[in-house]
Amino acid sequence: MWRFAAAVTLLEIVLTAFTATLFTFDPEPESYLAAEDLTQIGLPFEGHKTQRQTRFEALLGYDSTATLLRPRQTLWVSVRVDQSEVDFQSRRRREENWATKASFGTSAVLDDPGRDGAGYLVRHRSATGVRCELVRFRGGRMLLVKVSRGELVGSPDEELAGCERRARVIQERMLRKLRWWGDPAKDDPR
Fold it and tell me: Which ranges of the chain would DSSP assign to H, the alpha helix?
């Protein structure tokens, strides 16, 4: 009889622990831009793909690429893990160094901090295209969103503004998805 009581008690303990784990489990969000994210924010696209990046067999991050349509722009989103402040600053210094070289075109590197993380914005114009890159760093992870356009139809300033608008929409989606701000269920990130 005591064996039966011990078995039932042990089963109750296991079930209680399992139930507690089940209800408190909060999985880490996907650390990449999925095709569904672009669909949900209403951006037409084609050719979406995501690649897992590794360095020395350790996870470096996830890179997602797509071609945005109407107007046709190239999108690159990267979420880097296990990054340090040095990684973030060296990436920024590289952009600032390129901005001093006239052969690369005209670049502006501006501070663009988030709510509780560091960030910067790159606006680049050249004879052949424009590029807007938004970079955020928080808690050992770095989010990079780059939208570029190689074929200029309008003025470079108009094309650059279009790239920046789309980059900011995608960045806000990723910030909510990564839980860097707001509630992922809400539409307005502010």
Answer: 2-24, 35-40, 85-99, 156-177
CATH class of 35-177: alpha beta
- How close are the terminal C-alpha atoms of the chain, in Å? 61
Q: How far apart are CA 118 and CA 86, in angstroms?
A: 12
For 130-140, what is each residue's pLDDT tens digit? 999 999 999 89
Bridge partner residues of 111 (DSSP)? 120
**Residue bearing tokens 């279009």:** 162
In 3-state terms, what secondary structure has residue 21?
helix
CA 134 to each of CA 72, 121, 137, 184: distance values in angstroms, whole numbers, following the listed order: 19, 5, 10, 20
Delimit the domains of the chain by residue range: 35-177
Q: What are the backbone dihedrals phi and psi of residue 84, each rounded to the nearest 5 degrees, phi first? A: -115, 170
What's the pTM value of the predicted model, to 2 decimals?
0.79
